[in-house]
Amino acid sequence: MNDIAEGATQLGHATALPPSPDEAVLDRVPNPHPGTNYVARFTVPEFTSLCPVTGQPDFAHLVIDYVPGDWLVESKSLKLYLGSFRNHGAFHEDCTVAIGLRLRDLLAPRWLRIGGYWYPRGGIPIDVFWQSGAPLEGVWLPDQGVPPYRGRG
Predict the structure, then answer these.
(1) DSSP state letters, 28-76
(2) What pathway does this protein act in (predicted)?
(3) Binding site residues for substrate, as ranges?
(4) Which among 71, 79, 97, 143 is least surrounded, fewest beta carbons within 10 Å?
């Protein structure tokens, strides 16, 4: 395995969707620019989970921004991890914050934030935001680009 793929256990292999977030494996790979502050962004416009009370599907648009330290999250493993929420029952707040905490613990980034823009259930959209600390000075941090929910008004 080359240096780029070091630590990537799922990259280049057929991998089934994990049955749950707890069973999902998140891989990390070395950051080729560990001394440089830059923002990496993952946009997940079709995130799904289940309401833990009704079992009905919940849908969100997630935006994950982070300033890497020594590690990057390997994108295939992130995709599979996020897909594992499809059959997982949890409230919007729990899903959003749990994803942020898991990435923080895996990567030890210089900074991380996640915006969970959830589609309405029961007529109320719930947006959930979490970040690991204050944004780093001098790092360009673009707006997440997701407009607030506005019905047909």
Answers:
(1) EEE-S-TTS---EEEEEEEEEEE-TTT--EEEEEEEEEEE-SSEEE-HH
(2) tRNA modification; tRNA-queuosine biosynthesis
(3) 73-75, 92-93
(4) 143
Q: Read off the pTM.
A: 0.91
**Where are the alpha helices (H) located in 69-119, listed in sequence order?**
75-83, 92-107
What CATH number has the domain bearing residue 91? 3.30.1130.10
Walk along the chain (153 residues) and give the pLDDT tens digit of each residue: 455 566 677 777 788 899 999 999 999 999 999 999 999 999 999 999 999 999 999 999 999 999 999 999 999 999 999 999 999 999 999 999 999 999 999 999 999 999 999 999 888 889 999 999 999 999 999 999 998 877 655
The SS3 assignment for 140 reads coil
Active site residue 95: no
Active-site entry in 3, 22, 27, 58 = 58
Told to judge if 51 belongs to the known catalytic residues of this protein, a careful annotator would answer: yes
Tell me which of 22, 27, 51, 143 is the catalytic residue: 51
- Binding-site residues from annotation: 73-75, 92-93
